[in-house]
Amino acid sequence: MFLVPILASLIVSHSAFPSVVYLRADPDGVGTGWVVDAEKRLILTCRHIVGEQAKLEVFFPTFRDGRLLADSSDYLGRRAKLRASGHLVTGNVLRTSDALDLALIEVPSLPAGTRALSFADRPVSLGQSVRSIGHRGDVDTLWNTTIGTVRQHGRLAEGYFWRAEKLAVDLPSLIVQLPIEEGDSGGPVLDDRGGVVGIISALRRRVPLAAVGPDASAIRRFLKRVEPPRNRESGIAEEIARSTVWIRPTATDVRCAGVVIDRERRWVLTSAAGVGPFDRVGVAFPVSGKDGEIVGEVATYKDGVELHLARRWHSGTVLHCDFRRDLALVQLDSLPDGVKGVSLAPRDPAVADRAVALSHPAGLEFAFVASSGSLRQRGSVALARAEFSAKPQANLFQLPATGTAPGGPICNERGELLGVQAAKDAPLHQAYAASLAEVRSFLAEAPGAILLRTATEFWHEVNSFQKIAGWHAAAGSDFDAALRLLPDCPPALLARAQLRAARSDWPATVVDCDAILSKRPQHRAALLLRANARLELKKPKPALGDLQRWLDIVPGDIAFRETLARCFDAADEPAKATDERKRIARLNAVLKSTR
User: Fold this and answer.
1) Residue 476: what pLDDT?
2) Taking the model in full, what pTM does it have?
3) In 229-318, alpha helices (H)
4) What was the pLDDT predicted at 474?
């Protein structure tokens, strides 16, 4: 199956060569361009290639016996002959755009038969095969074809720097899995039909294989061309993405993903290291844009209230965690409509089998980012801390992955799950995942682990309530007697903390809440009570931490939001307090409308 896009790319690239040019804007501007209008002799490239130059050299490809001459010496050492044949001309820079990082060049002539590249007749989708043609400066050849896939698309909020200037801020961009370098900038990104879907302009070097550039809509805007209505086509990567979640999206340390594997039981499989010590987590499902595409911009997923109101935020309980295998199982309280889930593959992949993955890589302004690769090897690998003597069987995939973005699904070309990415740091372009056999064993162990934990917690709670009831009947307010029977009993500690709060004994209230939260870090009542006590003690910053811990799970909790607004007032941040009260008003309005 993979041979088909490779053969298609070779045919497409060969037919596109005559339309792609090599640009040199002395003293140091070197890059790629392509004919965008043959009749008007117009060439498109990146603004940062032309710099401040008004003119530049434009080299067209030459052929001998039907074969492209690709050595750079065939061009740089033969300028006079190329000018005589019309394969080297001087181009004039007509206009540029810093916002789009694009430049338009007019040339006096084109070699006979040169055609313009046309735009693709369909929008791009996640995982779609693409290729680019460029002239990277660290090799001796020109018109190099690079094959890859679409990782994500959307607005590039941060832009990028060039000579201390910021270009392409809020650029409608394409993120592609292509190993490009300086000199490739300005090269066209083509789909498997030879249509232009974007242009190469920069790299996000903190993320492996993340080339960026203006997408077709940005190019059309620069050229003042109307974008026609087109039908979208979604592939396997996009289908997998719709069952992928972002776990704890408001957290700042780890961008953990997960994947729905059982719709009926609302089960999500993810990374144990990504979930961490928490018993409850909040997750975000992908948001759909106006044309049905998945919205990738990270900013879309940072406001939990908006996601809650859009029904894209759901909370869940961590049922089972295995740090040795780096696997965790989360049961969501509910699921959005239309989520199908991803089924497990019937067998582990063979070496060199293709793989498709989804993740939320740090260092990129996008989430639900696709990547493609293959299985390198399988073996016993330590996926977690050293105290685990037994190493699980793990698959080693060739994928542009990072250990700070674990939990994302890795699937075969049919969209069946092969595993989830481990948090283990890996060499460049390698990702680890517990093997499919280990995943099956983990899921088989889950019911027993869930039952044992439930029974333990039930006995603990029943035993605790019995002691509290005994204390209440005998002493009325002797909390110490109950706590002597069970020193870490959360109900007894909470009851005493509430009484102390009623007496305005705020330091003692905090001490009792500390004891509860040391055992149960996500205890709702204790977090809210400690936040209010800290507010009374004029400590709004620690109170904010307590509130955010719970709002990371349930962003629509109005009681926590009201206390959060008070925190912002106490911290002298009136704008944030006003924004918070607007969120509360929206939540209350939706709540009333559903009653």
Assistant:
1) 42
2) 0.90
3) 236-241, 272-275, 304-309
4) 33
pLDDT of residue 571: 92
The tokens for 481 are 């007697």
H-helix or E-strand containing 173?
Answer: strand 171-177
Query: Residue 594: its pLDDT value, please?
Result: 72
* 583, containing H or E segment: helix 574-593
| Rounded Cα gap, residues 499 and 186, in angstroms | 69
**What pLDDT, in 10s, does the model give residues 277-300?**
888 999 999 999 887 889 999 999
Burial of 269 (0-12, 13-18, 19+ CB in 10 A): buried
In DSSP terms, 104 is beta-bridged to 44, 95
Task: Record the tokens describing residue 127, joined without a space.
Answer: 């995982």
- What values do phi and psi take at 258, rounded to 5? -160, 175
As a whole number, the mean pLDDT across the chain is 89
Q: 95 pairs with which residues across the strands?
A: 104
The rounded distance, in Å, linking the Cα atoms of 17 and 131 is 12
Q: Closest Cα partner for 498 from 516, 473, 520? A: 516
Q: What is the mean pLDDT of residues 329-333?
A: 96
Q: What phi and psi, each to the nearest 5 degrees, are found at residue 556?
A: -95, 15
For the chain, list the domains and their CATH numbers: 3-223 (2.40.10.120), 236-439 (2.40.10.120), 477-593 (1.25.40.10)
Find tokens 């369909």 and name the residue.
122
